[in-house]
Amino acid sequence: MKNRARFVDVEGRPAIRFEREYPYPQERLWSAVTDPAELSRWFPAAVDIELREGGTITFTDEPGAEPTKGTILACEPRGSLSYTWEGDELGFTLNPTPQGCLFVFVNVLGDRETAAMVAAGWTVCLDEFDALLAGEPPSQETDSEAWRPVYESYIAEGFPAGAPVPGQGGETS
């Protein structure tokens, strides 16, 4: 599988990290990680974002469900964005390269045991991110069809697992 997550330590906390190189300018990737219309294509929740340090980001996961809120921890236009989301911290760094842009995404985990589950979810989401950037249509595969084998592969690689899987009746693997 391409573009796998790595399980890393960030200041003593468990995290997953993705690095991907794109042949697109930094501004294009910035739009894809900050524009709610573009986020709706690949991010796992609808997002309303106040792009400034200390701003609010609102996540609506399911229709009719109560939205959750996070805080913008850092916002450097076109360069980096980080915020909280339900006990996790998400950070995006966009570094221009001669060929386009290096995209680095780090999800600092609130719970170590969610690593395999979160890595698999982001792998599926970032595949949609790739398709969005390339101008391709969305995948026709359902999230659970795409997610399950990726999740199992992260467990096989030794990523921490054991947290209940949402929508799986409390199943942990």
Automatic annotation (TrEMBL):
Entries under SUPFAM superfamilies matching the protein: Bet v1-like
Annotated InterPro entries: ASHA1/2-like_C, START-like_dom_sf
Highest rank taxon of the organism: Bacteria
Gene3D superfamilies: 3.30.530.20
Activator of Hsp90 ATPase homologue 1/2-like C-terminal domain span: 24-133
A Pfam family that the UniProt record links to this protein: AHSA1
Family the entry assigns: Belongs to the AHA1 family.
UniProt name for this protein: SRPBCC family protein
Species of origin: Rhodococcus pyridinivorans
